[in-house]
Amino acid sequence: MSTGIYNSSAVDNYILEQSRREQEITRTRSIENYIKEAPYVLLVWGGRLLAVALLIMCIGWAISNALSFDRNTSNITKTMSGMSHSAGENNESGSDQVIDIDELLKEGEARDTDSGLSEFNNNEEITSTEDVVRDYYIFDTIDFEGDILDSVTVGRMYEDPSSPSISQYCYVDVPQINGIKSTFYFINIDMGLRTEKTITDEVARTLGVSSSELKRAKSHCTI
Amino acid sequence: MNINKLNYKTLLLIIAMTCSSITLMADGPSIFNAKVDGVVLIMGDGGLASGAIISSKGHILTNWHAVDENENMEIIVLGEGEVDDNAYQVEVLKLNQSQDLALLKIINPPRDLNVLKLSKVIPKIGSTVHAIGHPEGEVWSYSLGYISQHREDYEWSYKDSDETFTADVYQMQTPINEGNSGGPLLNKYGNIIGINSFGYEASQGLNYAVTVKEIIKFLAR
Prior knowledge:
The structure holds two protein chains of two kinds. Chain A has five helices and eight strands; from the N terminus they run αβββααβββββαα. Chain A starts with 8 loop residues before the first helix and ends in a 5-residue tail after the last helix. Chain A is an alpha+beta fold. In chain A, strand 6 and strand 7 form a beta hairpin. Chain B is α+β, with helices and mostly antiparallel strands. Chain B has one domain (1-221): Thrombin, subunit H, CATH 2.40.10. Chain B is built from four helices and 13 strands. Chain B is globular and about 70 Å long. Residues 21-26 of chain B have low confidence and may be disordered. Chains A and B meet through helix 1, strand 1, strand 2, strand 3 and helix 2 of A and helix 1, helix 2, strand 7 and helix 4 of B. Strand 3 (98-99) of chain A pairs antiparallel with strand 7 (118-119) of chain B, so a sheet runs across the interface.
């Protein structure tokens, strides 16, 4: 009985070589696939991170609101006549444009609206596109005891509450025989240009008022 | 993969709904809580009305018709204790019949007054506005509405009264009744943009507030 011995090392080496080649091909393709899929993977992870960030932000926001509500109700609870309510601290005025009422009241008391209106709200600039109060008149009627005239009116026009008046005038309404009142302007200040009408006897005669009465009335003009 | 996509969409939807609900909830209640004690109750022989505290010295802005022929007036500030503990005498500082505005001042005002600020921003039509007052004696009530239109040199009068009023007013859909007169109309920041003044009984949602422009003119005069 004879035993044949075969040398299969060449076949083994060949198979090994083939196996290594397959491994290398697989590795290369894996790298190519990874590079191709990388943007999509990044996108997915970016989306996940964004969702988590939004969730955290909303939770923080909710906690913040919840805490502020708790502070309002627990610190200041007022009752009166069986009714109770929660009163918070002064709410922030946000981005609203507010007026300094104390200044306004002061000036109203002093009846010197010109300087007052130029000063109040001086700490805020109008930066938004929102409409604000502008182009309005303030009239002061001063009682006057004359034979014909009973009042002197001072008018001021403002473009904006935070600016000085752009025009001022002082006038009297003179009642005429036909029942219609005739307006006579003593002083007119427009854009800083002051114009005063001279009271002559002719003017007084035309109006039907004595010149002395007109002059006395003019002395009540506070502009 | 489909399940994952669905989950993301659901998550985003939940987040969006949560955020929007938080934003809405913060509006009316916070304005009421922060501003309610800036509104006073005016009581006199002529009836009840509302007023807005506009200075720490005790200046109160209200309607002329809330003060006219209202003898023995006193104001009630929202505070701890009984009504008498929070009642104050007032003096009338300034009146303007045509604008239907009045300025009162508390004699010996308390220190911790909640002062309401005056906004100079003209609200846009459709803006949300808030009113606090005492409709039909239901003290310190809140109502919400919208600016319907701006009416310039609007003329009106009250029943059982000969006086005619002329002023710039905001037409609004905010519910107000007798007792709201003189109370503040507030913007989204809780600042005064008008004084609630009148409405038409026969109509729905036709109510009016004297504008901040008139208030400025009135106070500066």
